[in-house]
Structures are given as C-alpha cells and as structure tokens.
Amino acid sequence: MFLNRIVPEKGAHYLIEAYNRIGRDDVKQVIGGNVDPRDRYLDSLGTLAGNNENTVFTGYLTDEEVREMYSNAYLFVLPSDLEGMPAVVLEAMSHRCPVLVSDIQECTDIIRTADHEYGYVHKASDVDDLAAGGTRPLLLRAHGHAKKTLFKPTFRFRRIRRCLAARAVRELPL
Predict the structure, then answer these.
(1) Which of 14, 60, 117, 129 could form a disulfide with 123 if both were Cys (CB 3.0 to 4.6 A apart)?
(2) Mind listing the pLDDT tens digit for each residue in 10-67?
(3) Residue 119: Cβ within 10 Å count
C-alpha cells in the first residue's frame, strides 16, 4: 500500500514496477493520495499498471478510510527519492502496519534506533531491490508478527521531538 501525494519524487512508479515484477495475484496493490488534476504523472502510473486488476488507485481518502486501509494493509511502502520528515511512515507505524522505506536518511532515521529496526529498507530508486523487499519471507509474515512485537508504542511525542531536535542540530551549518 502507498498513501501519499501522487508526485514523482514519492516513487509510486517504482512500487508499480516492483509489483509487476513480483507477479502476485493474491495481494492487491493500493495507491492512494491526492493528485493535481493538471499533472500527467497519474496517467503515466495508470499506463505503467496496465490492465492489472490488482492495482487500485483510490484517490483522496478520508481519515476513516485511511485508518481502515492501514488496519488491513499487508505492508506500507514509501519508495521516495526525496523526503523531508515523512510523517506518513510514522502514521503507518502508529497503526502497527509494517513499513518498507527507501534508504534515504529521512526515512531510515525514523525506523532505525541504536538497537532496533522498526521496518524494512530498500535501496532508493532500485526497483529490483524494492521487489525483493516485498517478497522476503519475513515480510510475508510481518503483518501478524508486527502487531505483537515490532511496533511497540515506542514513538512517543517527546522522543520524536528529541530526535528531530538532535537531527536539526546535526544539520546546522557551521
């Protein structure tokens, strides 16, 4: 599942390509989010998806629909090339949804701590690695396991605020 703005830098095209390579018909691929109607990117995603009935474009989703999507998702994927602080990853994790993110620092800073990883990582812009990430045996079992162990309520506001403050200090120009 991909829920975000439908723009090229978020990488939905990588996800569709990876899904097509995996060739599974027992798992639907859901692409949801806002799109600028003047933008042709959504058209290119539709072309890339082809006639695959298992790829579903939802468009805008209400908060209730988003919660429902997370609760039923097998895996949340954010294959971004460029991010600021991707709150959507925190949102997925808060719903105890397993996450697979690109290896850009903005994503890995969220899912990795000194002693644990709270999600899975693929090489940014690498469709083969993204496809492999979606087929790892651990990931195939991740949803049930994650609800019990991986996504304990570790992401408290104070902790997130401290992490963001530490990151901001690291990035200050000298």
Answers:
(1) 129
(2) 999 999 999 999 988 888 999 999 988 888 999 999 999 998 999 999 999 999 999 9
(3) 24
Q: Which is it for the CA torsion 106, 108, 113, 117, positive or negative?
A: positive
Given this model, what pLDDT does residue 157 score?
Answer: 47
Closest by Cα among 42, 122, 110 to 80 = 122
- Among 39, 97, 14, 40, CA closest to 31: 14
User: Does the reported pTM lie above 0.90?
Assistant: no
Q: Where exactly are the structural domains of the chain?
A: 2-170
Give Rg (Cα) of the chain: 16
What CATH class is the domain 2-170? alpha beta
CA distance 13 to 21: 12
Listed residue (67, 65, 49, 61) closest to 12, CA to CA = 49
Residue 18 CB neighbour total at 10 angstroms:
25
